[in-house]
């Protein structure tokens, strides 16, 4: 529906209310993605324990304050990213969905469940297990844990979905958005391969894939604000 907005280049003020709501949703969700990603870095980088696995768990037993809140914040990122991509599809893309884009869209719609479960486990489950052997199985800092597996698998699903879906934006005026989505997807998919092969350098590609979410959100924010700007009617002074 809103894809026709871009095709006809009508001011957003002339859109039906649902179209204007989608533009606002794109802007708001892009802001949420940006703020939560930055907050994740600010909260978790200084709070993540170092040392051997046992030492890290011991440090968490002493206190989980910032670590816990870092993952509360992180649990918002993936749902917000899915909302942003959904809004971007309806606001920035053109034409009917092709079969591979439908497949990619399904993967993108589903991927967020796995990493979000991994993040939620760090503040909802791990604190209950810190004095038990099962803590190692759910501690995100352990690459052999269930939570880490959930996250990496989810990142991989995002990667595959993003690669398939990126062409949705490459045919229109949102090419930059499409290329960044494609790059993020490729990096995330490579990271999953590295994780499966126990190849740490390749696995680090998933970090690049996540980092590219920042410029992706910035592009979505700028596009949404640009459309919203022409929606503001001029009232003569």
Describe it.
Helix 4 (65-92) packs antiparallel against helix 6 (113-124). The chain has helices at 3-8, 17-47, 53-62, 65-92, 99-111, 113-124, 126-129, 135-138, 146-165, 167-170, 175-196, 200-203, 205-211, 213-229. The protein has 14 helices and no strands.
Tell me the Rg in angstroms.
Answer: 20 Å
Cα distance, first to last residue?
Answer: 34 Å
Report the helical percentage.
over 70%
pLDDT below 50 for ≥5 consecutive residues: which ranges? 1-14, 233-237
Strand percent estimate: under 5%
Structural class: mainly alpha
Main β-sheet description: none
Mean pLDDT: 88
Number of helices: 14
How many beta-strand elements?
A: 0
Overall shape = globular
The succession of helices and strands, N to C, reads HHHHHHHHHHHHHH
């Amino acid at each position: 529906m809103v894809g026709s907005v871009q095709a006809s280049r009508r001011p957003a003020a002339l859109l039906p209310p649902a179209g204007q709501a989608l533009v606002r949703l794109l802007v708001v969700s892009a802001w949420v993605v940006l703020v939560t990603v930055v907050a994740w870095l600010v909260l978790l980088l200084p709070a993540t324990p170092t040392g051997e696995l046992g030492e890290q768990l011991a440090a968490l037993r002493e206190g989980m304050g910032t670590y816990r809140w870092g993952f509360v914040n992180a649990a918002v990122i993936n749902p917000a990213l899915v909302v942003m991509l959904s809004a971007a599809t309806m606001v920035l893309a053109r034409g009917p969905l092709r079969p591979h884009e439908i497949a990619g869209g399904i993967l993108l719609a589903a991927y967020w469940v796995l990493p979000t479960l991994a993040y939620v486990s760090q503040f909802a489950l791990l604190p209950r297990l810190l004095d038990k052997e099962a803590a190692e199985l759910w501690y995100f800092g352990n690459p052999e844990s269930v939570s880490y597996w959930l996250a990496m698998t989810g990142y991989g699903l995002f990667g595959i979905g993003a690669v398939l879906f990126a062409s949705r934006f490459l045919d229109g005026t949102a090419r930059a958005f499409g290329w960044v989505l494609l790059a993020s997807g490729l990096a995330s998919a490579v990271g999953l391969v590295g994780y499966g092969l126990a190849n740490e350098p390749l696995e680090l590609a998933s970090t690049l894939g996540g980092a590219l979410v920042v410029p992706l959100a910035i592009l979505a924010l700028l596009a949404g604000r640009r459309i919203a700007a022409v929606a503001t009617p001029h009232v003569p002074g």
